[in-house]
Every structure is written in C-alpha cells, then in structure tokens.
Amino acid sequence: GREFPVGTIIVKQARIEARPEGQLFAMVKRGGRYNPEGAHGWEWFELAERPDQSVAIKWRGVSAPDGEQYGGDPHGTCNACHGEAKANDYVKSPALALGRVASR
Fold first, then answer.
1. Which residues make Cβ contacts (< 8 Å) with residue 85, sequence separation at least 6?
2. pLDDT over 80 at 1, yes or no
3. Euclidean distance between CA atoms 29 and 39, whole angstroms
4. Residue 28: pLDDT band with limits 50, 70, 90
5. Residue 38: how many CB atoms within 10 A of its CB?
6. What are the boundaries of each domain within the chain?
7. What is the mean pLDDT of residues 11-22?
C-alpha cells in the first residue's frame, strides 16, 4: 500500500482555550516495526519553543506520557485518533492526502 517515506516529519500547531500559547506536535515516520500496536511506523512528539526560539522535545514515543493530552481531550490518544486515517498512512490532514502529495 501507499505510505509516507521513512524520514517524513509532519508538524502541527494546536490552539485550545486552556493553553492560549498553543501546543506544537510532530509525527515522524520511522518505519520498520516501530509502533506496531498503533500508527504503524510513526513516532509522536510534543515540542516546545525555547526563549531563544529554538525547539525542544517535551516528550516522544509511541504514545504521550500519562497525563499529557492533545487538544484538551483527556481520553484521546495519538494512535486512537490517527487510527481513523489508517488509509492515508495515519495522517489526518486532507492537504496531505497521499494521492495529492505524490502528484505534486
């Protein structure tokens, strides 16, 4: 099947009322047998901007640490939500639909 190439990095900024500064998330395609129980081949990250405007990794892995959440959903997980987009290699953005990306 079609999938994003290993090394693909997708970054998204989320804004919610509880965190007006926003949250910055990334998914990185590692491939192989990484994250076999979730979004196959993908690793999740939460990033933070440092005062010098460089980027720090807050956490990374096959899922967020306990107590961390995305978009204010205490029950949502990266793998559960992105599992809805399995047909597009777990990437939910319509702008990044595999057919569209490959044709550019």
1. 91, 92
2. no
3. 10
4. very high
5. 19
6. 9-102
7. 75
Q: Taking the mean position of all CA atoms in its chain, how far away is CA 41?
A: 12
User: If DSSP codes are grouped into helix, strand and coil, which group holds residue 103?
Assistant: coil
Strand locations in the chain (E): 9-16, 19-29, 42-49, 55-61
Determine the distance from the C-alpha atom of residue 1 to the mean position of all C-alpha atoms in its chain, rounded to a whole number.
20
Per-residue model confidence (pLDDT) at position 39: 96
The number of CA neighbours under 13 Å toward the Cβ of 30 is 18
Token reading at 89:
């290699």
